[in-house]
Amino acid sequence: MSLLASLLLLIVAARLLGKLFGRYGHPELIGEILAGVLLGPALLGLIKPNPALAGIAELAVFLIILSAGLEMRFTEIIAAMRGRGMLLALISFALPFASGAAVAAAFELDLMRMIFLGLCISITALPVAVKLLDDLGILHTRIAHYSLATAVVNDVAALFILGIVLNMPQQSSLGEAVSTVMVATWKLGALALIALSLNWLLSWLERKDINVQTIPENLVRVFGAEALFGIVIVFVLIFGTISEMLGFHFVIGAFFGALFLDKRHFLASRYEDLRGTLSSITSGFLAPVFFAYLGLEFSLATFDDIAFPLIVIGVSVASKLLSGWIGGRLIGMPHREAIGLGCVLNGRGVMELVVAGIAYQKGFIGATMFSTLVLMGIVTTFLTPLLFKRVFPAEKLARYSKSAAP
Questions:
Q1: Which domain holds residue 104?
Q2: What is the pLDDT confidence band of residue 95, given thresholds at 50, 70 and 90?
Q3: Distance from the CA of 97 to the CA of which of 1, 222, 264, 288 falls in 20 to 30 A?
Q4: How many domains does the chain have?
C-alpha cells in the first residue's frame, strides 16, 4: 500500500475510533491507538510501520510536546513546587517509580529497562487529567488543583530524567554513569537557564512598562497574520536544535521553548488563533497519526509471558492510587477525596506514550517492553474515569462540586 493510501486509511480509522471513544466519555487517544492495532501487523496487517510514517509520527511528537508546553506556565510549575503540593508531587512520582523499578528487578531486566519502566509508570498525563476534571465539572476543586499541579511536576521531572537517560551510554561503569549524569544535568540546567533568562527578560520589560505584545504584533505586521504560527514554530525549533546540539532529544528543547511562551506575550485574540491553528493541525491530523502509529508497532506476539504485562498494569494502577491517597491524606484531604485524587493521577496517556516511543526508537527498550508500556497507557487511561466515578458516584460528586464552589 502506498504512503498516501496508508496515511488516509490510518487517519480515517483513527479519527472514527477516537470520536467513538470520546462520545462515550473516554479519551480519544485510546481509539486512535486501537485503530493502529486493528490495521497493523497485530490484527489485519493492512499497514506496516515504515520510515515514512515514522517521520510523520516524529513531527507529531514535536507538535504534541509544543501543545503540552503551551498549556503550562513557569509560574504554575513554581507554584506547584511550593508547600504541600511539592510533597504530593514527590510521593506520586517516587512511589510509582520505585514500584516499576522493583517489577523490573523481579524480572531481571537491565538498568535502562528498569529506568524507563519506572519512568512511564510514574507519569501523570496533564491533558487526560484536564479533560476528565473538566468533563466532571470539578476544575475548581482541591482535587483538580493538586492533581494538575502534580501532573505538571511529574511531566517536567519525566522529561528531565529522559534527557539524562538519553545521554547515558548503554554499557558503562558506575563512575562513567555518574559522570554522564552530572554532565547531562549541567547541560539541561543550561537549557532551562536560557528559557528562564528569556522569561525574566520579558518580565523585566513589562515592569519597565514596555509592551511585550508589540514584538509578535510587529512580526505579524511584517510577515502577515497567517505567519504567526510559523514564527512560533521556528522559535520552538531553535530550542529543539539547541537541545540536539547538547546531545538531548529535540522534544526536550521543544518543551522548554513552548513553556517559555505565555499568553501575556500575545494579544488575547492572537493567542487564541495560535492555539486554534495548533489544535487543528495536531489534534485533527498529526496526533491521531502518532497514536495510530504506536498501535502499528504494538505486537501481541512479543508477549511470551502474559504475567509481565499483567503485573506491570496492576502495579501501575495500584502505585498511583496508593501514592495519591497517601499524599492526599498527608496534605489534609478526607479519605474519599484522597482516593479520588489517586484516581485522577492514574491517567498516563500522552506523555507516557511519547516517552515509550522515544525509548523504543532509540533502542533503549525492546518490542516486549514497548508493547507492555503501550498496553499500560491504554488500560490506565481507560480506567481513570471509571475508577473516579466509582469513588464519586453522581450524587456524591454533585455534593462535592457544590461544596467546593467558590
A1: 3-403
A2: very high
A3: 288
A4: 1
Return all residues near 126 (Cβ < 8 A) that are at least 6 apart. 68, 71, 72, 148, 151, 152, 155, 350, 351
| Residue 161 CA from chain centroid, whole number | 14
User: Could you tell me if 65 and 19 are in contact, meaning their C-beta atoms sit under 8 angstroms apart?
Assistant: no
Gap between the terminal Cα atoms of the chain: 56
- pLDDT of 76: 60
| CATH code (residue 231) | 1.20.1530.20
Name the residue with higher pLDDT: 327 or 276: 327
3-state helix, strand, coil in the chain (%, to 5): 80, 0, 20
Helix (H), strand (E) at residue 323: helix 307-330
- Using the structure block, give the residue that is written with the C-alpha cell 510533597: 87
The residue among 105, 32, 36, 93 whose CA lies nearest residue 311 is 105
Most distant CA atoms of the chain, gap in Å: 64
C-alpha–C-alpha distance, residues 335 and 325, integer Å: 8
At 199, list the grid cell.
522569561
pLDDT for 167: 67
CA distances from 225 to 222, 277, 380 (A): 9, 12, 41
* Structural contact between residues 384 and 343, judged by C-beta atoms closer than 8 angstroms: yes
Helix, strand, or coil (residue 210): coil
The DSSP-derived string for 150-187 is: HHHHHHHHHHHHHHHHTTS-SS--HHHHHHHHHHHHHH
Pinpoint the alpha helices (H) of 208-223.
214-223
Residue 304 has what DSSP assignment?
S
Residue 280 C-alpha from the chain's centroid: 19
